[in-house]
Structures are given as structure tokens and as C-alpha cells.
Amino acid sequence: MLARELCSISAFRSAPPSEPCSTTAGGSVSSDAGTARSKVVSELAKLDPIVRDFVRDEFRLKKKLREIEALEAAAASGKSLEAAQVAKVSKKGQVLSDLRLVDQHISEALADFQKRHGPVPLALKSSEQQAEQQAAPGARSSGSSKVAVARRIPAYSASCG
């Protein structure tokens, strides 16, 4: 399953940007490859602090972009913007540029991680879910188990950084 999702990410990355993607009613892009990529990236962010920082930057920039788009919509509806709001809207190009750069860094980190460690483990299960699976088929977990379940995390040396 992970291999199929990684293939769809590769297809998503190699597709020309002019190809249409389906959009939801809210205007956000909906793509299976994009969803698979976000799952893999979120798992990688749990393992790599550098990717975690990139993901935080991506969220921060997306939030700024949403705020700018809301201000643009308000201006289009006839509402006058204050000077600080106009300044914020004027920075849209820089925010988009930064967002593309962060996305590129995340993609490079994902490719680098896969090259060094193989595929990223997808959907690591919580300790509760693993404990339930290990329990007898007829037995149910009360959810109050104090059993710690160790997850195997690939070694990451500082020299790879």
C-alpha cells in the first residue's frame, strides 16, 4: 500500500502543473496523490525534526495565504481595507514564493529520507490500537492499559543532516 502511495506521489510530482485537479466546494484542491503525500510527509515529520520545521512553515504560510485571500475577497465585495491589510495583501507573491520553496524542501527531504532509509512507515498505530490487536480475539481492551509499545524508528545520524 505504501509503495502504491509513493508511486502516486511520484506521479503527482512529475505531472505538469497545467493538469486540472479536482476541487472541493470550498475551493481546496482534492487529489489522491496530494492526500497520500500529506500522510507520508506527516509521518516523516514525526521522525525528522527538520521536516517538522518545514511542515510548520508550510502551515504558517498557508494560514497567511488564507488570510490574504479573505482580505482580497472582502476588498472585491466593496469593503475598504486598512493600510496594514493592504500591505498584507501586497505580500501575496512573496508568500506564494515561500510556500513553493518550502514545498520543494519537503519533497527533497522526503526523497532523501527514502533514499537513505527506504519507504516512510505510514499510519503508525497508536499503542492502544496495537495492544488491542495483540489481545485475544474475543477479549476487549478496557483502554486503561499501561503497557508501552515500542516503535522501531530508523537510525538517523547527525552527519546525514
From TrEMBL:
Q: What superkingdom does the record give?
A: Eukaryota
| Region entry Disordered, spans | 13-34, 125-148
Q: Where is the composition biased (Polar residues)?
A: 20-33
The organism named in the record is Symbiodinium microadriaticum (Dinoflagellate)
Q: Supply the name of the protein.
A: Uncharacterized protein
